[in-house]
Amino acid sequence: MKANKRKFGAADRGLLPEGRLTGPMPWVLAIMMFLTVLAAAAGLGLGNAARGLDSEIGNRITVQIVEANPDFREAQARIAASELQKLAGVQSVRRLSAEEMKELLEPWLGEGGLEADLPVPVIIDAELTADAYGRLDVIRAAVREVAPSARVDDNAQWLAPLAKLIDALELLAGGLVVLMVGATAATVVLAARAALDTHRGTIEVLHLMGATDVQVARLFQRRIALDALFGGVVGLVAGSLVLLVIGNRVGALGSELLGSAGLPLFSWLVLIALPVAGVVLATLVARTTILRALGKLL
């Protein structure tokens, strides 16, 4: 006859002498979660920066009127802007003001550098449709025909290396997250096996009392889940503090590109979900490891 299955409650959980949050495992998991949060935040921030760069640059071109004679420069700037507005597929045309040019050149020329007799080019920003962007050579030829001193720059082309770098760093951040998940799973496996070896005698007593492998595994996985929850919360809090400090430093720089790498609400929700995912992962890995190990003991 088979022995009746017995339910194990809080009193039976006391058969496992290890207290909660003792040993290095919770702190190792906290370090793992801390690094995972930072890597995930880097990936999410780089993704936001890539989307912001694409939306800001998109199908934009910049027309520079490089002419030493101020009268000729002004005349060509006006006719170039007028010609752009006439071309099909040009959504908007905007000439940068003197104040904007001053802000752009001041870091290079210093304060008051524009007051010298320098031939500052006129810059015209134009946004194109996708079809017009595909006919960029035609637009460039039309502008050069009416304004010989004009130089038409494709913003996306000279920013392409930066976009590729951001994509590569985003993939690297994703790879680091995957590696940290694997390292966390390996840590749980080692902790589960160590717990089984430590409490082998207790497990034999539980089996004699009628406990099944599933019930024994539940006792261990509960403790591992609590350790994972503690480590996940500690890692999330520490990682969030670091991200907030970095965000304040980046905001002080006033860079639009770096500012676009900030984390919106959805990204923070993803980061908050990481400890929950870590607890689920630790529980499943611990359960699988313990059940396999118990099966080999019998």
Number of strands: 4
Which blocks of ≥5 consecutive residues have pLDDT under 50?
10-15
Structural category is alpha+beta
Shape: elongated
Question: Can you put this structure into words, describing what you see?
Answer:
Helix content is 71%, strand content 8%. It has 298 residues and is α+β, with helices and mostly antiparallel strands. The protein starts with 9 loop residues before the first helix and ends with a helix. Helix 2 packs antiparallel against helix 8 (160-198). It is built from twelve helices and four strands. It has a four-stranded antiparallel β-sheet with strand order 2-3-1-4. It is elongated, with a radius of gyration of 31 Å.
Question: Quick recap of the structure?
Answer:
With 298 residues, the protein is an alpha+beta fold.
Topology:
Blueprint: H1 10-13, H2 25-57, E1 60-65, H3 70-86, E2 90-95, H4 98-109, E3 122-128, H5 130-134, H6 136-146, E4 150-154, H7 155-158, H8 160-198, H9 200-208, H10 213-253, H11 256-259, H12 265-297
Antiparallel strand pairs: 1-3, 1-4, 2-3
Helix pairs in contact: 2-8, 2-10, 2-12, 3-6, 8-12, 10-12
